[in-house]
Automatic annotation (TrEMBL):
<protein>
    <recommendedName>
        <fullName>peptidylprolyl isomerase</fullName>
        <ecNumber>5.2.1.8</ecNumber>
    </recommendedName>
</protein>
<feature type="domain" description="PpiC">
    <location>
        <begin position="113"/>
        <end position="214"/>
    </location>
</feature>
<comment type="similarity">
    <text>Belongs to the PpiC/parvulin rotamase family.</text>
</comment>
<dbReference type="InterPro" id="IPR027304">
    <property type="entry name" value="Trigger_fact/SurA_dom_sf"/>
</dbReference>
<dbReference type="InterPro" id="IPR050245">
    <property type="entry name" value="PrsA_foldase"/>
</dbReference>
<keyword id="KW-0413">Isomerase</keyword>
<keyword id="KW-0697">Rotamase</keyword>
<dbReference type="InterPro" id="IPR023058">
    <property type="entry name" value="PPIase_PpiC_CS"/>
</dbReference>
<dbReference type="Pfam" id="PF00639">
    <property type="entry name" value="Rotamase"/>
</dbReference>
<dbReference type="InterPro" id="IPR000297">
    <property type="entry name" value="PPIase_PpiC"/>
</dbReference>
<dbReference type="GO" id="GO:0003755">
    <property type="term" value="F:peptidyl-prolyl cis-trans isomerase activity"/>
</dbReference>
<dbReference type="InterPro" id="IPR046357">
    <property type="entry name" value="PPIase_dom_sf"/>
</dbReference>
Length: 271
């Protein structure tokens, strides 16, 4: 997903995909939709155009509601729309039992981030080269045996044998977080204890002699420490639900033609 640059919009962006858009008796001009498109992430111009149209429909719905209430939005539209939502949205405060239940079901979201300080020696071998993989595996076992008796030689052996650019730093990969290295090695690293691993680890690139020098984080926080974040998460979810229902009710009452708000109507405003 990416933002659609105004400079990359086709000349016919004003007339693509979406018919004339109306909110009540107010038309949203095609050129206004085209200008709005640059602020929306999308895989295509058509999707950006749809998101832009929905965002402008949402703002027009809120402006018309302000007009119904006799509120002047000309001198401060953003403040007026925010005040409208503060006044009319009913967002229940999450109950303590709901917070605790959500935390128990999503404890991994509130864990301290896992960080691993890793050194490795990559012994390269293609996945389909059985002879090379066997040879490099045996070399890996030899290097591990040497390192078990002389661990200070890791940098030297990395410089001599590793096919990874990290060999110039003695095999150091620095601090890794989950997802920063090739998937099969990433999964193995998360389970390893600290120290030199006693056998080579396989990946699509070959075999890795690995030393896990330090492990930090990765532990679930107790509820007492995560309670504020849990409450904020549930309050935000409740706000999105309330805003979605509010906007869909305005759409049904005031009338929208040319585009329809979807189930993520709140996202058009909250982004």
């Amino acid at each position: 997903m990416q933002l659609i640059s105004l400079e990359t919009l086709p000349d016919n962006a004003q007339t693509m995909a979406i018919p004339p858009v109306w909110v009540g008796d107010v038309n949203i001009p095609a050129d206004e939709i085209a200008r709005e498109m640059q602020y929306h992430q999308a895989d295509s111009v058509e999707e950006a155009q749809l998101q832009a149209a929905r965002a402008l429909v949402v703002r027009e719905l809120l402006r018309q509601r302000c007009d119904e209430l006799g509120w002047d939005v000309e001198d401060g539209e953003e403040a007026a729309l925010a005040a409208l939502l503060d006044a009319e949205l009913e967002v229940p405060e999450p109950a303590e039992t709901d917070c605790q239940r959500y935390f128990e079901a999503n404890a991994e979201r509130f864990s301290e981030p896992l960080r691993l300080a890793v050194r490795h020696i990559l012994l390269a071998a293609a996945p389909d080269d059985a002879e090379a993989r066997d040879r490099q595996y045996r070399l890996g076992r030899t290097l591990i045996a040497e390192l078990q008796s002389t661990p200070e030689r890791f940098s030297e052996l990395a410089q001599r044998h590793s096919a990874c650019p990290s060999k110039d730093d003695g095999g150091e990969l620095g601090w890794l977080t989950p997802g920063q290295t090739v998937a099969e090695l990433d999964r193995a690293l998360q389970r390893l204890p600290e120290g030199l691993h006693d056998r080579p680890l396989a990946s699509r690139y070959g075999w890795h002699v690995v030393s896990l020098d330090c492990r930090e984080g990765g532990h679930a926080q107790p509820y007492a420490e995560a309670a504020d974040r849990v409450r904020h998460t549930l309050r935000e979810q409740a706000t999105r639900r309330a805003l979605r229902h509010y906007l869909l009710a305005l759409e049904a009452r005031l009338g929208v033609n040319g585009v329809a708000l979807d189930d993520d109507a709140a996202g058009a405003l909250m982004q």
